[in-house]
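Sync notes, pocket subgroup
Present: LS, DG
LS reminded everyone that the earlier model was apo-only. Rerun requested with cobalt (II) ion included. Inputs:
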Amino acid sequence: MALRSIRTYGDEILRKKAKDVKKINEGTFKLLDDMLDTLRDRNGLGLAAPQVGVLRRIAIIEMEENLYEMINPKIVSEYGEQRRNEACLSVPGKCGDLERPAHVKVEALDRNGVMYTLEGDDLLAAAICHELDHLDGVLFLDRADNIRDNDAATVETD
Ligand code: CO
């Protein structure tokens, strides 16, 4: 496992639409493992492959000691609304307030290529939406208001 460098605001790759993973292989495992190392190193909540320069539909979230690895994830249902403060490892020093669904249900492949369903409320729902946005070249800044300097202690970063 190894750390990968995180692309930051202004890098074109963050604005591109990531491609589906066609074949899960050793490279995919290495990417997932490196993404987890990188996420933990930065005390983040989630990370999407384009953030480490790989334009594939892969994202991870680690929350409350659960690790979710999502390959080709799709939101299949969502409901409710929440307003939440978000930040992003690719947008250092900034945070903002966003509307997100309060609940989302996602279908994704795990690293064995097995389809599973992940349901999330509240923070997990927001984190899922944030990471899936990265796969479509969308940053939280695009949806946020009250964008301001990040007083790191109070903000979850993904
Ligand atoms: Co982010």
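DG: Residues 14 and 137 are 5 Å apart (CA to CA).
LS: Residues 88-90, 130, 134, 158 surround cobalt (II) ion (CB under 6 Å).
Action: DG to write up.
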